[in-house]
């Protein structure tokens, strides 16, 4: 099938703002895909922590909208110029970039001047099927789309679009890992993914988290040592901050050895300021890098890692129940009760 797709009716979960329930709405597919566009049927989506923050009113979002940006699906139709074919099983990026603006040409596609984001766009803005909590999604030209193997479990593949690719971006911002001492703060999905990717790369990994259960989980994802906040942590070559806690950020910076590098990705919402001593940064040659979103190659790296190591680490255990599209309110309630787990949404149910 090429660009002609019109005629079918599909469904999506419309969210109208904090305090509003999700409503399942039907809509017709566009009559035709534009050049480079892809129509995907969503197999499974997972509820990211940022989705929870949005629904709780802790971060701004256009409304009405279709939330969800971690998912795996099957290509139904692809217009000329698209990088995939009908029948391909794929994941795709959170960001849609123009490829031509000054930021894109500098390798900052994830901060494109005309950036659009999957799961973050208004329904009435001309791109209705723009989130994972829908039976189908339209992927515009400029979306990174990566095929995934048929045998990679859906609950493992879906988070690649956000959690795993973000960790890949963090490691790209860090120095080479073999033989390095790495500190990871925060042992949610991103933190344990970071532990697994660092351990696989040959690093010695310590994970810090206040939750004993999360610390135990981190050992199953390759952590050589776990620690509770407040335990003395020093001498690290690399510190990866994924909790968003200002205290954890300060702990990461304090834990660095001479020439150390901190990569911060957890602080995506406003929070209290962090105190630093500039003299220590100067004398100890320290580097701090922020990571937000990711480049196309990071999603490809994420899929390659999961494909090669899904059997070694218990990623499938990090996703809890499965809910239908009409059960999205219950799914979010379950996610709020168990923030250490992703909850799954099967839109075709």
CATH topology of the largest domain: Quinone Oxidoreductase, Chain A, domain 1
- CATH architecture assignment name of the largest domain: Alpha-Beta Complex
Task: Specify the helix fraction band.
Answer: 10-25%
How many H/I helical runs? 10
The radius of gyration is 20 Å
- Secondary-structure-based class equals alpha/beta
Distance from N terminus to C terminus (CA atoms, Å) equals 25 Å
CATH domain class name of the largest domain: Alpha Beta
Number of individual domains: 2
Low-confidence stretches: none
- Helix-strand pattern: EEEHEEHEEEHHEHEHEEHEHEHEHE
The CATH homology group name of the largest domain: Medium-chain alcohol dehydrogenases, catalytic domain
Family: Belongs to the zinc-containing alcohol dehydrogenase family.
Cofactor: Zn(2+)
InterPro entries: ADH-like_C, ADH-like_N, ADH_phosphonate_catab-assoc, ADH_Zn_CS, GroES-like_sf, NAD(P)-bd_dom_sf, Zn_alcohol_dh
Protein name: Alcohol dehydrogenase catalytic domain-containing protein
Q: Which key terms come to mind for this protein?
A:
single chain; 349 residues; alpha/beta; Quinone Oxidoreductase, Chain A, domain 1; Rossmann fold; 2 domains; eight-stranded mixed β-sheet; six-stranded parallel β-sheet; 10 helices; 16 strands; 26% strand; globular
Draw up the topology in text.
Elements lengths: L8 E6 L8 E6 L9 E9 L2 H7 L14 E9 L10 E8 L5 H4 L10 E2 L18 E4 L3 E5 L6 H4 L5 H11 L7 E5 L3 H12 L3 E5 L3 H9 L4 E3 L8 E6 L4 H10 E9 L13 H6 L3 E4 L5 H14 L9 E6 L3 H10 L4 E5 L3
């Amino acid at each position: 099938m090429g660009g002609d797709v019109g005629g079918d009716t599909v469904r999506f979960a419309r969210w109208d703002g904090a305090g509003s329930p999700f409503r399942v709405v039907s809509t017709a597919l566009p009559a035709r895909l534009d050049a480079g566009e892809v129509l995907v049927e969503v197999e499974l989506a997972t509820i990211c922590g940022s989705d929870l923050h949005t629904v709780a009113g802790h971060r701004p979002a256009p409304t009405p909208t279709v939330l969800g940006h971690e998912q795996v699906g099957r290509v139904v139709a692809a217009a000329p110029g698209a990088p995939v074919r009908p029948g391909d099983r794929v994941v795709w990026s959170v960001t849609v970039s123009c490829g031509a603006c000054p930021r894109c040409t500098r390798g900052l596609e994830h901060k494109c001047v005309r950036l659009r984001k999957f799961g973050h766009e208004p329904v009435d803005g001309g791109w209705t099927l723009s989130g994972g909590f829908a039976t189908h999604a339209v992927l515009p030209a400029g979306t990174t789309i990566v095929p995934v193997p048929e045998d990679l479990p859906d609950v493992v593949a879906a988070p690649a679009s956000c959690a795993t690719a973000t960790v890949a971006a963090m490691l790209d911002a860090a120095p080479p890992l073999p033989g390095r001492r790495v500190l990871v703060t925060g042992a949610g999905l991103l933190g344990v993914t970071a532990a697994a990717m660092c351990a696989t790369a040959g690093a010695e990994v310590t994970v810090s988290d206040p939750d004993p259960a999360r610390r135990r989980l981190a050992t199953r994802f390759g952590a050589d040592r776990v620690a509770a906040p407040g335990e003395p942590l020093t001498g690290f070559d690399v510190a990866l901050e994924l909790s968003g806690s200002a205290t954890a950020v300060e702990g990461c910076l304090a834990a660095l050895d001479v020439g150390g590098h901190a990569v911060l990705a957890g602080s995506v919402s406003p929070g209290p300021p962090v105190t630093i001593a500039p003299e220590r940064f100067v004398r100890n040659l320290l580097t701090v890098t922020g990571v937000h979103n990711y480049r196309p190659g990071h999603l490809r790296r994420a899929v390659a890692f999961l494909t090669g190591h899904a059997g070694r680490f218990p990623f499938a255990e990090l996703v809890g129940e499965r809910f239908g599209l009409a059960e999205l309110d219950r799914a979010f309630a379950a996610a709020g009760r168990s923030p250490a787990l992703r909850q799954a949404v099967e839109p075709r149910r």
